[in-house]
Amino acid sequence: MCWSATADLAAGVGIAVVGAAAVACAARRPRDLPLAALPLLLGAHQLVEAAVWRDGGGSGPATTAWAVIALPLLALWVPVAVFCAAPPRARRRLLVPLAAGAATSAALAYALATRTVTAEIRGHTMGYSLGLPRPGLVVLGYFVATIGSLLISGDRGLFLFGVLVAAGAAVSFVLWRQEYISTWCAVAALCSVVLLLWVRRRGPSRTATAGRLV
Q: For residue range 107-129, what is the model confidence (pLDDT) as tens digits?
């Protein structure tokens, strides 16, 4: 796929529409709302990157906004959302990626507060640079929080989403090592459309059902 402002804009709008539909479907199960809203967040993220393209990269507000969503926000959002939606039997083991997400998010937020993130257009990709201390440990914590929580969620639909995101991470690393963060976020955004199918397959919560019967 050729990444550009136009591609990010089109993908962002399409994924955000899917996210809005997922949120509407999840109204029957409030605990699913954070995960259902993930395509909406990732679609908005692609729209922010379209603004980074328009600015020619650099270290402006759009670049900072992109990094805030991609790094500390998603590191915490995903494990919290999975914890909310997961069956009760899986929640104890999900405390591990939840803790990893909290620690990773805090480290990334501190890095963004004390360093300048910059974006650079590299052909048809966008590269971001922050200069993280101990990047290997931070990346490991990010993977445990995001992919790890999906894979051990105890839900087949979320497991499938986790497999797709993990495969996207591997492909992005092999093909665009220097622009890995940007391309993986884009691939994850495209994969997130499966969450609409996941939400549609889930019926109303037992609480909501009982409320209608009273």
A: 999 999 999 999 998 878 888 88
SS (H, E, C) the chain: CCCCHHHHHHHHHHHHHHHHHHHHHHCCCHHHHHHHCHHHHHHHHHHHHHHHHHCCCECCHHHHHHHHHHHHHHHHHHHHHHHHHCCHHHCCCCHHHHHHHHHHHHHHHHHHHHCCCEEEEECCEEEEECCCCCHHHHHHHHHHHHHHHHHCCCCHHHHHHHHHHHHHHHHHHHHCHHHHHHHHHHHHHHHCCHHHHHHHHCCCCHHHHHHHHC
pLDDT tens digit sequence for 87-108:
999 999 999 999 999 999 999 9
Tens of pLDDT, residue by residue over 46-103, are: 999 999 999 999 999 999 999 999 999 999 999 999 999 999 999 999 999 999 999 9
Total-model pTM:
0.87
